[in-house]
Amino acid sequence: MNAALQSSLAVTGCIRGNLVDPVVLLQELIRFPTENPPGDVRACVGFIQEVLGLLGIDSTIYARDAMRPNLVARLPGRGVAPPLLLTGHIDVVPVSGQRWTVDPFAGLMKDGFIWGRGALDMKGGLAMLIAAFVAMRDSPPPGDVVLCVLCDEETGGQNGAGFLVDDHPELFAGVRHAIGEFGGFSFDLFGSRFVPIQVDERQFVGITANIFEAGGHAALKGTANAAVSAARFVQKVSSLVFPIVETVPTKRMLRTMASSVGPVASAALRLLGIPKVAPLIIRVLGDRASALSSCMASSVTVTMIQCGTKRNVVPSIAVVEMDARLVPGDSLENILERLRKLAPFGTKFTVHAQPRQKSETDMSQYERLEALLRKEYPGVIPVPMLLPGTTDARHFNRLDIQTYGFLPVAMPKGMAYMALIHGTDERIPVEALHVGARLIESYVSGYQG
Ligand SMILES: [Zn+2]
Fold first, then answer.
1. Pair (177, 211) in one structural domain
2. How much is the pLDDT for 181?
3. Do 163 and 262 have their domain in common?
4. How far is the CA of 171 from the centre of ligand 1 (A)?
């Protein structure tokens, strides 16, 4: 079979009547190795454009870098609610160095799962969003729906969401809310099953410290050494503990969790919500609290140290790179003040940060999303989540758009979602794709702004 025929069969294979089958679509999307780096998503985005085109839906490509295009399509609504954004990224993290038991780019269906790189993060979610988007064409929702298929998320989104927000903000005029990653997957803790809905995230800030010392000949004892000063500084930074900051999402998350677990766990969770005693509780809970605690306080992690040019020269400068994550409500000045106190005299700090526009989390859509999950999965407890890491949500935040991570995936008991994303043998339950698409569609169909 020639390549053109094969590709057109793949396009038509995703379509059932007037609808997109999210399972087949996901299998096809996985077959495009959109690993980032290098982040070439041209063929995959072209494929989605063909699928939409065959269903009579126009879409436009926007690219800052030709290898990394983004696709935007708009479905007209009934004009009685503001437009709503559906957003997902099509790039995936590389598989190099991982030992998969299946071909990560075969889009295999096996044991009730679709296997492959991106099945969870986030081609599966994107397949749900596209299926829901297409399904609404024949029964227009209250407001317009904007679908964004984005590149580059896994390397910061500068050519994806960042580019669209900077260069084409008109595409998002009037949009206040978005559905995207991260959330909707289930996890088990203290004998209960929870589903997080991402409502906010910590802000990423890069910090560079330039440490200066006299330096000189390595044979002379007592020469002030930038390597040694940097080592001392790094040691101190690594033991920094930042205070717990109370935020609307984490307060509500802890309260909800506390009311749905046994008495001992409940008491521990309630104490976690009190900044003064929380550090003690985190120590007692150990591993079980690590995910919870990392969304409750800011952090600084040393990631790179550069120093020295030659074995017999004592270095006079050391450069320490740090990854700082700020909890909403904490200030960068607080973090820098702590770091300055630990650094040797004369250290110069440089900050690399994109400002955050929205300071308060907009929880207005949370209740509806929570109700949809409760109805679909009785016994499962939705909780709002402040993500310790970052997603494209931070770019849309600059346009005052609140993103909700709502890509429902009911994981089988004992299977840890977090261990599979970016990991080996990433896979998604087949059934989750249909359910997820249906839940997203019901949310959008009832959206009132
Ligand atoms: Zn992702």
1. no
2. 92
3. no
4. 22
Show which of 325, 353, 381 is a domain's final residue: 353
Structure tokens at 106: 């075969």
Domain extent, residue 346, equals 203-353
Read off the amino acid at residue 385: M
434 Cα to the center of ligand 1, angstroms: 19
Please state the pTM of the whole predicted model.
0.90
A 10 A CB-CB count for 46 gives: 15
> Residue 116 domain-assigned?
yes
What pLDDT does residue 357 have? 65
Q: Which two tokens stand for residue 275?
A: 């900044």
How much is the pLDDT for 282?
Answer: 84
Q: How close is the Cα of 298 to the center of ligand 1, in Å?
A: 22
Low-confidence ranges of the chain (pLDDT < 70): 1, 355, 357-359
Identify whether the C-beta of residue 353 lies closer than 8 Å to the C-beta of residue 336.
no
- What's the pLDDT at 233? 98
User: Is 69 part of any domain?
Assistant: yes
Collapsed DSSP state (helix, strand, coil) of residue 422: coil
ω into 249 cis (within 30 of 0):
no
Residue located via tokens 């699928």: 51
Tokens standing for 267?
């008491």
Same domain (yes/no): 324, 216: yes
- Give the total number of structural domains in the chain: 2
Which residues are close to ligand 1, an ion, with C-beta < 5 A? 121-122, 181
Q: How many CB atoms lie within 10 A of CB 352?
A: 11
Res 285: pLDDT: 82
- The DSSP result for 290-304, as a single string, is HHHHTTTB-EEEEEE
> Given this model, what pLDDT does residue 1 score?
63
- Rounded Cα gap, residues 249 and 269, in angstroms: 14
Amino acid at 275: P
